[in-house]
Amino acid sequence: MIREGWITAGRVTGYSRLALAIYAMLAIPWGLLSHDFLDPTGKPLGADFINFYAASDLALHGRLPEAYDIARMEAAEQAIVPAAVEQVVPWQYPPTFALLILPLALLPYSVAFVLFMAATAALYLWLIHAILPDRRAVLAALAFTAVLVNGLGGQNGFLSAALLGGGLILLETQPIAAGVLLGLLTYKPHLGLLVPFVLAAGGYWRAIAAAAITAALFALLAWLAFGAESWQAFWHLIPTMGDYLRAGVLPWDKMASVFAAARLLGASVLVATLLHALVALVVAALCLLAWRRGGSIELRVALVVSGTALVVPVLYDYDLVVLAIPMAILAADGIRAGWMPGLRTLLVIVWLMPMIGSSLARYAHLPLMPLVLLALFWACWRRQRLTSAAPLSRTPA
């Protein structure tokens, strides 16, 4: 039996403050040692943010299709930060994401970076507070190591978590708003892979309709703004990105998927694909079963978000910000109804893994993140089953 008495609310708050202090101590010298928008390693500040900024610049000049040409995107990024000599971040997003980030290039690079990260972080923290309205929970969510990974990369993990979690949490109280948020998530469509299936299983037809209409209007607006060529270029790039994933050009050590872990351990593409598919099918089946049976919407949300992390083949370390959603839900449930044995220890491990998972995979060839995701999914499944043993009555929205 794991002794968990040391994991108290006071200690969680203390360790969260310590983590934030460490982040600050790392960030300040990192910033002071940076110059010409380059960090001490020679990468642009915000690493991947240059990808968003360059796409915004191209879109503002009516040249978004060029973002899907890797050579032209390299030239666009080089023009923004000329001192960066080895920085090529392919633009892999549908044209809809360009709508969301369109104003970025109207601002200086550093200002755009700070505003984008601050605005999306605010959405993320709003979501956590909505799930568990306690300042200590918000503090722990801010200190979550995936936040550091996402912040250093200048990535969109905060936005993805806010749209996915917000859309699912609002299903029973505001189904139209929920559908709109989920429709906007199509800017990163693979993160919504399970969503239409679980919504259908649960009978959330108004939310499905709102999501479909929002996604269609979102795509149409992008087509009107950037032209059909941008969509054609996006679809033509997808096979290339698939080849990059299978070959390891897209770094497996920065991914948390079963497929990437299997490839990193030496499995063939076929074996890795079959293993990933097996896990994905089991996870998807359990999610559908849970959503069809009903019960606590919060616990079903935790289940499908943790399940999504196992189903998608491309899940980077910065995408793991979404794990704050099931962690907050399980914590809220534990405070209210009592803790399952081992759950607090598991939450601590999940809280730490985004920071150390990539390092273990890169330097020790130990891709442990899929195992942690499986443990989290199983905890969500067990808790959901315990509370829905006597199904709650509800009328689907």
Q: Can you put this structure into words, describing what you see?
A:
- The protein has 397 residues and is mainly α.
- It has one domain.
- It is built from 18 helices and no strands.
- The protein has helices at residues 9-32, 49-60, 70-80, 95-100, 109-131, 135-143, 145-153, 157-169, 175-184, 195-202, 205-226, 228-247, 258-264, 269-293, 297-311, 324-337, 343-363, 369-387.
- α13 packs antiparallel against α14 and α16 (324-337) packs antiparallel against α17 (343-363).
- The longest helix is centred in the last third of the chain and has 25 residues, at 269-293.
SSE layout:
Blueprint: H1 9-32, H2 49-60, H3 70-80, H4 95-100, H5 109-131, H6 135-143, H7 145-153, H8 157-169, H9 175-184, H10 195-202, H11 205-226, H12 228-247, H13 258-264, H14 269-293, H15 297-311, H16 324-337, H17 343-363, H18 369-387
Helix pairs in contact: 1-6, 2-3, 5-8, 7-17, 8-9, 8-15, 9-11, 10-14, 13-14, 14-15, 14-18, 15-16, 15-18, 16-17, 17-18
